[in-house]
Every structure is written in structure tokens, then in C-alpha cells.
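ugh ok so i messed up the first submission bc i forgot one of the chains. this is the corrected input, ALL of the components this time, i swear. 211 residues overall. if the numbers dont match what u have on ur side tell me asap before i send this to the collaborators (the ones from the other lab, u know who)
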Amino acid sequence: MTPAEKIPLLHVAFSMKFPSPKSELRYDTPFQLLIATIMAAQSTDRKVNEINQTLFSICPDAVSMAATDLNTIRDTIKSINYYNNKAKNIHTVSKILLTEHGGTVPSTREELERLPGVGRKTANVVLANAFGQPVMAVDTHVQRVSNRIGLCSTTTPRETEDELIAIIPPGQVADFHHYLLLHGRYTCKARKPECETCPVTHVCDTYKSEK
DNA sequence: AACTCGGGGCA
DNA sequence: TGCCCAGAGTT
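and heres the new structure output, hopefully the right one now
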């Protein structure tokens, strides 16, 4: 079965497993999505989501975050303040949005990647989920799942991006991301994948070859 | 494209 | 405690 042929089957199976596919990635604004994605880097989701609740209640947009004292931000997110840089980064990002982008989140990769703490993966998340652009954010979950199922032919994220882009279900970039991400996080885990509860073993090259 | 970096989950 | 992981930044 080719990767493209697997897509409809994946979609059906994952739709049942993850009935509200957009819930976790749905933030009110592009700004909150951007900040939440920066926050998510190298952190666990549960903790990040809790912190974001508080963070966004204090500063829901670029204007208020830029005006918030750095120490307040530091204190709010301190349990995931990776390298002690994250607070500084999101503070700086909000100020740059104000001074260089009229208070909005830019919609090109070049502009996004110029922001501190924003790399290719975060940029792609924003492009796909806030602006609906047909790009794929390939993190380690998506890479691993794609390799195991057989949706891509290399372990190089940059090449995997292009192979996945070619088979994105039309109009469903966000869902596609979400399925692959959650599946990798909760079922197709790096250490001990839980094939017993996996909804897509019938499409999975690795499962079939190891069976 | 490969390497570095070092907090946090988990065994 | 020690191994492994996550992605941005660097080379």
C-alpha cells in the first residue's frame, strides 16, 4: 500500500480514536498558538497547558505580554522555564510583534524563524494551524509514527516534511498533524509502543513486518 | 546535516 | 541515579 493509499484509512481510524481532533491545538488567537508552541518545546503538554491558562489570563495578547514585567512572566512559567530562556523569549517575541509586525503574528516562515525560540517546527505549527498553510511540522513523534507506519522513506525531518505534505488530506492539515502527534505521544511511543490498542495496525508496515 | 545543549520524565 | 528525549541554535 502506498502512503497516499493509507491516508483515508488512517483518517477513519483516527477519527474514532480522537473524536475532537482540534481541541488541544485550538487556541483563541494566532498569538496564543505561537506562544503556546514556544512553551511546548521540550516540555510535557499537561504542565504547559496548566501554565498557559495562568499565563494567558495575565497576558492574553502581545500588547499585554510586552507590558508585563519579565519577572512576573518568569514566575508564572518557572517550572518549565527551560534554560531560563523561555520567559525572556516569549517576552521578547511579544515586543517584536508590536514593533515589527503591527502587533500581529507574521505568516511567513522567514519572519517566524527570526523570533527567538522559534525554529522550523514551531514556525510550521503556526503556519499550518493559524494560517492553514499546507506545511507539516515534523517533531520526533510525527517522524517516528511516519517511519513506523510507512508514510515516509527517510528519518530526516526536512525530507519527511515534503513527503507528508504530498499526502495531506485536502483541507485537513490541522487534523492530520493532530492525529500523528497524539498517536505518537500516547500509543506509538518511542520506548514501548502499545500495538495492542493501536487503531491502525492494519495500515502499519512495522506492525505487519514484526507480527 | 550533524552536533550541542542540559531540564525533566521515567525506570 | 542514569538514560533518554525534545527541538532550537550553532557549526
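quick check: The two ends of chain A are 17 Å apart (CA to CA). that seems consistent at least. Residues 42-44, 47, 80-83, 156, 158, 191 of chain A lie near DNA strand B (CB under 10 Å from a C1').
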